[in-house]
Amino acid sequence: MSGTGGVRVAGVGMHPWGKWGRPFVQYGVHAARAALADAGVPWSDVELVVGGETVRNGYAGYVAGATFAQALGWNGARVATSYAACATGAQAIDTARSRILAGLCDVALVVGADTTPKGFLAPNAGERWDDPDWLRFRLLGMTNPAYFALYARRRMDLYGATSEDFAQVKVKNARHGLENPYARYRKEVSVADVVGSAVVSDPLHLLDICATSDGAAAVVLVSASYAQRHGLDAAVRVAAVSTVTPTFPNTVLDMPQLSTDATGAVGEPEHTFKESIGLAAYEEAGIGPEDVDVAEVYDLSTALELDWMEDLGLCKRGEAEAVLRAGDTTIGGRIPVNPSGGLACFGEAVPAQALAQVCELTWQLRGQATGRQVEGARVGITANQGLFGHGSSVVLAV
User: What are phi and psi of 390, to 5 degrees?
Assistant: First the structure.
């Protein structure tokens, strides 16, 4: 075993996203087997399975690592389970990477899968007055689209963003997703289609907001020495994983918390929580935003993609709309964002989406993203924040 030489992405795999109505374990097994086949690594060589937890599907969802290990066939692997809301996949990758870097294993399989209910993602049933996620529904009726709308309105008020700007994000991502075989929605839309769709939570329309989906993604990580010994194509390396938490005081409303922190005693921090996620990733990778060739970011809504462009330093604060209009974020532009089609084309499958971003960046850096390839991509970054203060960013490089 080796803790030197870094951690490599040997294989990636996905289950197509949609509404299939089957147990999440089936999707995860499909993705895991695809990732193992992509890597050319036998299941018997896997020494660690890290499962992304999903909490809406009964007992099995609470022991996700062992769930996938059993479904793939007991092989004696160690297991771990990660839960970090939408950042689950990145936290799971960090767990696997840490064990490899410590020299405790050479091969780890990371799996995230979900089966989602129809409609909004809501807290589990029951009276839970100490649960902030439950409280936002009980006290404010604060569904996720309402939360997304707060951010959208903030962009409008601060930077003059318009509904048409938001719609352009959907138009771009829908076009990107046309050639993605794993995407749920593969249909072009126009600005008129978006602004003409039903208003869900003003100013966001139905086509501004991602759906909830069933889906899965998996990643096989190996030590550099294992890759060399077995002749694996493992040029893509994990250059950084950021799982930072907020710094007090948190001055931007971040659900499910119901208020911001006061700044009278200590003043505002130098960076917002979302800015700190990318900064930590850049610092660990030893790069800056100017080195990034492609980004997969968390477009729960069209407006949030614009926020993430600025939070990751891909453009200056307040300039995301202008960068979008200039075509810089489309494939062929200066910094393509969401060439996969993003959550606009996939929808949310919470434990899988940060892993799906890593899958897409791996294909991009290998030159295998047929029909949506960012030419010459060598460095990619993801961003996928989880509620309750979970940061999430992964940097891959070749």
Answer: -100, 115
> Which has the closest alpha carbon to 360: 349, 351, 377, 348?
377
Report pLDDT for 3: 38
Cα–Cα distance, 250 to 309 (Å, whole number): 20
DSSP reduced 3-state for 373: coil
Q: What are 315-371's pLDDT values in tens digits?
A: 999 999 999 999 999 999 999 999 999 999 999 999 999 999 999 999 999 999 999
Contact indicator for 345, 207 with CB cutoff of 8 Å: no
Residue 72's SS3 state is helix
The stretch 291-298 carries a mean pLDDT of 98
Record the pTM. 0.95
**SS3 assignment, position 154:** helix
Amino acid identity for residue 374 in this structure? V
Contacts of 87 (CB under 8 A, 6+ apart): 243, 354, 384, 385, 386, 390, 391, 392
- As a whole number of angstroms, the distance between CA 396 and CA 358 comes to 8
Gyration radius of the chain's alpha carbons: 20
Residues 6+ apart with CB under 8 A from 152: 161, 166, 203, 204, 208, 301, 302, 303, 304
pLDDT value, residue 62: 60
Give the 3-state secondary structure of residue 386: strand
- Spatial distance between the Cα atoms of 269 and 107, rounded to a whole number of angstroms: 39
**C-beta of residue 54 within 8 angstroms of C-beta of residue 348:** no
Asked if residue 366 lies in contact with residue 235, where contact means CB atoms within 8 angstroms, the answer is yes
* CB of 263 closer than 8 Å to CB of 251: yes
CA distance 253 to 132: 13
Token pair recorded at residue 39: 């890597």
Whole-Å CA distances, 286 to 6, 281, 282: 14, 8, 6
Which pLDDT score is estimated for 5? 64
Q: What is the pLDDT of residues 141-162, one digit of tens each?
A: 888 899 899 999 999 999 999 9
Q: 209 Cβ partners below 8 Å, 6+ apart?
A: 145, 148, 200, 201, 300, 301
Token couple for 205: 């329309």
